[in-house]
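Appendix B. Raw example, untouched.
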Amino acid sequence: MSAKLETLGQNLEKHLGERIKSKKLALGELTIEVSAGDYLEVMKALRDEAELRFDEVADLCGVDYSAYGNGERQGLRYAVVVHLLSVANNLRLRVRVFADNDNFPSVPSITELWASANWFEREAFDLYGIVFPGHNDLRRILTDYGFIGHPFRKDFPISGYVEMRYDPDQRRVIYQPVTIEPRENTPRIVREETYGDL
């Protein structure tokens, strides 16, 4: 671990203490996990403490851990992962928080701390169904308003439920049950001895 990451780890322990449930180094970045109850306090400290000063949300995404790894995962299913950047200190940090309830996943909104989290949280809501209390405009951002379900959940059917098409006879867009036949796509690989020769 580099001296910079070591210092970051010490500063995180100093300012967050027992609110950090776990801390690990992966891909040259520190990842901390916090509980949903401590999430807002932790994020506020990460933004405001002079030794940390994470002033930018680089990314925020939802994760469905229901079939993570080689089998059925034990524990909570939905998480929100936030990538923070400190321009002043030239640091990056990954923060993960699990939603307490798998039936109605909910994590507090951080849009009051970082306005740039707005569309990221809307995307996580749209694709995973994670609700962000405190978000003042939580609505779908990528799918249609009439869309049913959340397409990035691992239990969402691959072909969806309904399809949308324009009907020239009715002169409007109509929804109908999916008519895609399930099939197996096997790519055809062509290898020729002279491929690429001029």
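End of appendix B.
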